[in-house]
């Protein structure tokens, strides 16, 4: 059944060669490390162990990062210096302002909604008989690729022309028809940012499992004594939630919100798979790709990447500080 | 970037009554159960619809909704045959192999390099250690978009564009900061007495690393390995930029993404293709759920 091209053995050899080469590098490092003796040996062994990592990070992360910042001041071909023009374009061009606006909507909606749903669900299934099964259902979307998630939901949103002999095959449009409405071209209609909102639904669907898992763990970590005491005081369920559960999991909520915000800022696969960023649904990370590959505007792509970088930094710093506080 | 240290075990906390449980007990109106069931259905239905469709004949998928299956059940494996068949032009088998070829080195290489580096940071005293560690730690904030354009140029100049090398190197590099940080957190928890004892016996850093550290590190390596495997398997951006078109090195997600563009209405192929592409992550998820959740939570901000 696997009708693969005949070059599979060749690929396999390539991979084995790469692994062998890499094994040889590690082998040399370890061999040299085991040979080092004497006073300075710790220094040498330390540097040897770090050598491959430092090389890779310097060439693969630090240099490209700095280079991209530099290239964001160059023109489309990456040749002439044009100052901050790329940044000016990002913040003045109509299409790019839509992109920024969409990104803002995404970041405002996804983290609170995914966290809210995750928290409510974690509480609802906590200690129930089917807890682990119920959790697996919500968590599964997180395990599959966002491309697959995109296809799954594109099918939900599918539209068929509104003619008497044509039936809808997308569930959402079928429900609209059952309710007596006319089918809508869901992913094309940008009135009221409808299509963007529908993409956001998909991302929430993916991320709620993450929120649920973290918050569920936090809920289970609340000490029994506190709950018992509150119960003896006759606290009603709602105040139990507001006065005990919420404050106890506050840090976790912040961590989840910031983590989701970072993930949302970088969202790419979902948009690219479902609309390709067309019909006014593009976001920063997708626009970066479009400018780089489709529009061939390297300078603008670099500037978009830098903007993304700058937006992510404060959230990550805050996130790390919260995590450290918690630890 | 890390959210939870690898040592956290969210699932196993035996408590008799949590706050939520009490709240729920009192709330235990049918409404609470109903809400949970509604959410669970909403989260399952979209996948179920496409899964069911993947077994329906092509014409049935195109003409009627999947819910009509219950009144007109016809099942076929043709769609799965079609995505593996070279006649359909989809050829998922080739891409499936490519995904494996990309994933295996992209997991093994960063994992071993990170283990070495994490050991050095935790247990070897060398000059400049702290500065280097902070630098590696800080690199976690770099979004991979920032690195792609110059890397594309570099790979072109070195002459490895269009091979597996750019993918292996890029995935390895992007994995390192997080992997080192997580493994370091884990390694430094290992009691110093164990290492001292080994040193007394005359073991050098190489022997200590292999005989003392590696066996203890297994759970952390497994968690991060699974996370990295799925991250690479599910990746789209890196492969779009470095694997380009054609079936030479492109992974299965890329081919699926391309199908949605070029054969956007061929739902019989998209449906079966989707499930072929997620069979690996779903299996890993079901078999190794605990490691999987840990790894995923630990690395959720990556990229």
* Residue fraction in strands of chain A: under 5%
Number of helices of chain B: 14
Poorly predicted tracts of residues of chain A: none
At the first level of CATH, what is the class of the largest domain in chain B?
Mainly Alpha
* Biggest beta-sheet profile of chain B: none
Low-pLDDT stretches of chain B: 1-15
Annotation field: number of helices of chain A: 14
**Which term fits the overall shape of chain A?**
globular
Backbone CA Rg of chain B: 24 Å
Oligomer: heterodimer
Q: Terminal Cα separation of chain B, in Å?
A: 9 Å
Keywords (chain A): Cell membrane, Membrane, Transmembrane, Transmembrane helix, Transport
Subcellular location (chain A): Cell membrane
Organism (chain A): Actinoplanes cyaneus
InterPro entries (chain A): ABC_transporter_permease, MetI-like, MetI-like_sf
How would you sum up this structure, described in words?
The complex is a heterodimer of chains A (about 325) and B (about 300). Chain A is mainly alpha-helical and about 325 residues long. Chain A has two domains: about 10-70; about 85-145 and about 195-325, Orthogonal Bundle (MetI-like fold), CATH 1.10.3720. In chain A, about 75% of the residues lie in helices and about 0% in strands. Chain A has helices at about 10-35, 40-70, 85-90, 95-125, 130-145, 145-155, 170-180, 195-220, 225-230, 235-250, 250-265, 270-275, 285-295, 300-325. In chain A, helix 4 runs antiparallel to helix 11, helix 8 (about 195-220) runs antiparallel to helix 11 and helix 11 (about 250-265) packs antiparallel against helix 14. The mean pLDDT of chain A is about 90. Chain B is mainly alpha-helical and about 300 residues long. Chain B folds into two domains: about 20-85, no CATH class; about 90-300, MetI-like fold (Orthogonal Bundle). In chain B, about 70% of the residues lie in helices and about 0% in strands. Chain B has helices spanning about 20-25, 30-55, 60-65, 80-85, 90-125, 130-140, 145-160, 165-185, 190-200, 205-235, 235-245, 250-260, 265-285, 290-300. The longest helix of chain B is centred in the middle third of the chain and has 32 residues, at about 90-125. Chain B is globular. Chain B starts with 18 loop residues before the first helix and ends in a 5-residue tail after the last helix. Classes of the chains: A mainly alpha (about 325), B mainly alpha (about 300).
């Amino acid at each position: 059944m696997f009708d693969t091209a005949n070059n599979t053995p060749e690929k396999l050899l390539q991979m084995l060669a790469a692994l062998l080469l890499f094994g040889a590098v590690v082998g040399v490092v370890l061999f040299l490390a085991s040979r080092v003796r004497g006073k300075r040996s710790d220094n040498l062994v330390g540097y040897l162990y770090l050598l491959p990592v430092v090389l890779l990070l310097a060439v693969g992360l630090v240099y490209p990062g700095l280079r991209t910042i530099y290239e964001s001041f160059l023109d489309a071909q990456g040749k002439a210096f044009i100052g901050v023009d790329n940044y000016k374009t990002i913040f003045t061009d109509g299409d790019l302002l839509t992109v920024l606006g969409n990104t803002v909507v995404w970041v405002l909606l996804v983290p609170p909604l995914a966290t809210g749903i995750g928290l409510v669900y974690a509480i609802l299934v906590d200690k129930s008989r089917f807890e682990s099964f119920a959790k697996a259902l919500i968590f599964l979307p997180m395990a599959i690729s966002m491309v697959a998630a995109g296809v799954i939901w594109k099918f939900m949103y599918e539209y068929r022309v509104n003619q008497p002999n044509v039936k809808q095959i997308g569930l959402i449009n079928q429900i609209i028809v059952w309710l007596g409405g006319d089918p809508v071209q869901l992913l094309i209609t940008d009135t009221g940012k409808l299509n963007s909102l529908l993409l956001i639904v998909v991302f929430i669907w993916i991320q709620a499992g993450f929120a649920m898992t973290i918050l569920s763990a936090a809920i289970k970590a609340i000490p029994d004594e506190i709950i018992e005491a509150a119960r003896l005081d006759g606290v009603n369920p709602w105040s139990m939630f507001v006065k005990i559960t919420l404050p106890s999991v506050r840090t976790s909520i912040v961590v989840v919100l910031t983590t989701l915000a970072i993930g949302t800022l970088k969202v790419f696969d979902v948009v690219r798979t479902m609309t390709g960023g067309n019909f006014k649904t593009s976001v920063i990370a997708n626009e970066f790709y479009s400018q780089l590959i489709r529009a061939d505007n390297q300078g603008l792509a670099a500037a978009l990447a830098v903007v993304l970088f700058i937006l992510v930094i404060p959230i990550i710093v805050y996130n790390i500080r919260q995590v450290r506080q918690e630890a | 970037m890390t959210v939870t240290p690898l040592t956290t075990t969210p699932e196993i906390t035996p408590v008799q009554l949590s706050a939520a449980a009490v709240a729920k007990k009192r709330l235990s109106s049918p409404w609470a159960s109903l809400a949970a069931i509604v959410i669970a259905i909403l989260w399952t239905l979209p996948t179920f619809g496409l899964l069911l469709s993947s077994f329906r004949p092509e014409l049935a998928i195109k003409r009627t909704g999947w819910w009509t299956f219950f009144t007109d059940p016809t099942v076929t494996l043709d769609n799965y045959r079609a995505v593996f068949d070279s006649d359909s032009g989809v050829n998922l088998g080739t891409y499936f192999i490519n995904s494996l070829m990309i994933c295996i080195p992209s997991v093994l290489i960063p994992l071993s390099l990170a283990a070495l580096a994490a050991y050095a940071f935790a247990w070897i005293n060398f000059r400049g250690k702290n500065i280097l560690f902070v630098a590696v730690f800080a690199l976690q904030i770099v979004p991979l978009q920032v690195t792609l354009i110059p890397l594309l140029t570099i790979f072109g100049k070195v002459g490895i564009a269009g091979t597996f090398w750019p993918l292996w190197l890029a995935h390895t590099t992007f994995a390192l900061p997080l992997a080192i940080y997580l493994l370091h957190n884990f390694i430094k928890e290992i009691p110093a007495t164990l290492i001292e004892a080994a040193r007394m016996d005359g073991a050098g850093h190489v022997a200590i690393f292999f005989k003392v550290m590696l066996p203890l590190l297994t759970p952390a390596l497994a968690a991060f390995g699974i996370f990295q495997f799925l991250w690479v398997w599910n990746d789209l951006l890196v492969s779009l930029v470095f694997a380009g078109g054609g079936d030479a090195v492109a992974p299965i997600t890329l081919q699926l993404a391309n199908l949605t563009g070029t054969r956007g209405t061929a739902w019989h192929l998209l449906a079966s293709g989707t499930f072929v592409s997620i069979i690996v992550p779903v299996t890993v998820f079901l078999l190794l759920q605990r490691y999987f959740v840990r790894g995923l939570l630990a690395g959720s901000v990556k990229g």
